[in-house]
Amino acid sequence: MYTSYSRGFRAPTFVENSKSQTLGIQVDQASGQNYTSITEGNPNLAPERTRNLNIGFQLAPTRTTDIGFDWYKIRVDNVIGQGSPSQTVLDANGNLLYKVIPYANLGYLDTNGFEGTFRQALPTTTAGTFTLSGDWAYVNSFKIGSPGKAPVNGAGNNYTLTQPFGGSFPRWKGNTTVDWSYHKFDAALTWQFTGPYAQNLSPATSKVGSYSQFNLMVTYTGFKHWTIFGGIDNIFNRTPPYDPIFANGTLDQNGYDQSIYSYIGRFAQVGATYKF
């Protein structure tokens, strides 16, 4: 069993605390129209300060079994991000042209959850050796608080998508692998799972579904110095679940959250490596 506690800080970057200006494009949530944003540095920024606590254990009750568990709690104060607009400019017809948005210390981030790992190998038989392993994570809380406002919990939803450290946060994510070894052959089938999350930024839907992807990798080491390999990622050619906030001109045009998913469809590979 182990316990660790650490503290740290992050000083503002040159872009964040200088007089620099960065141009960008954002979406007006009221009208759905794009507008120019000018992000300005702020020389009065305080550094972010972090506290981390981890409690966990790693057990090997048998020669073929490993179990691990880790609970974490992370607190970040003086979170640096884009503050409230200091200037809003409209055209002669009242349409939004651009906003000047300075960096600011927005508040705090407080998150906790756990991660678990396991590995179980079955006794070797004439058919080879089978091993089941996995690593899974659960986000229990992801709270972002601002001065004078109640904290927002982003765990299991996308409330914090537009905030520093924010995004869409499904509570569950994990990988489970079945591995088969037989003489010089090895094959691994992996299930990648991302849980659902509540859609809180668009009235079009209340939930974004879960996602599963299966990958297969096979290797052969029967030739001296050589390893021959081949595999297929996303065997069933699954597409990420649709999220309306990433379509129709809002944030992005691809229809899914790229911070969670990377969709390239079914992908096959073959190759070889040589060790001298």
Automatic annotation (TrEMBL):
The keyword Transmembrane applies. InterPro entries: Beta-barrel_TonB, Beta-barrel_TonB_sf, TonB-dep_rcpt-like. Residues 2-235 form the TonB-dependent receptor-like beta-barrel domain. Keywords: Cell outer membrane, Membrane, Receptor, TonB box, Transmembrane, Transmembrane beta strand, Transport. The keyword Signal does not apply. It is a multi-pass membrane protein. PANTHER family: PTHR47234, TONB-DEPENDENT RECEPTOR. This is Outer membrane receptor protein involved in Fe transport. It comes from Paraburkholderia bryophila. The lineage of its organism: Bacteria, Pseudomonadati, Pseudomonadota, Betaproteobacteria, Burkholderiales.
